[in-house]
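Hi R.,

Here's the chain you asked about this morning:
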Amino acid sequence: MQWYHSHDRRKRLLALLVGILLGAIGTAFLRSGQFAATFPTDRGAWAMRAGTPSFPAAPAWADREGQDWSLVQMEVRAYCHCEKCCGDWAKIPILDRTTASGESLAGLLVDNAGFVAAGPLIPYGTEFEIPDYHDGQRVAVRDRGPSDEGQIEVFFPNHQDAVDWGVKVLWVKVYPKKI
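And here is the predicted structure, written out as tokens:
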């Protein structure tokens, strides 16, 4: 019986030494930088591997002291007036269609006016400056879209342009509606 207990003690001591040795090897491997090439350590790289949007750093022009706008990072989706994007609303004749704010869609198309669909917490008339959309000009909220505050939808006159835009995560300038 005495031999059994001493043998058990030796096993535990051996297991402890093996654990310490493996821990030291693992630490040395991590510090060597070889591990980082296989498993990214920064959050953005993990997001890109997982297929979720990675949030870029704020652009240099983000310093807004004295400005009348806010810089917000948003998921910007695209849509058009077709049935794929708008469902049953697209079945209404184009001359009779209006946006949720009551503006004529035909008039907006003729004027080549870009506009945004946003959730109910963002008032109509709030303006956005969205990189690579409508030549960087301000566009107003004229339609209702996603209810998530961090999402907006930009309008395109044809479906292929909307598909080409897709979904982007961008820094957007928001100019609140003046009351």
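One quick note: The chain has two domains: 2-39, 66-175.

Cheers,
M.
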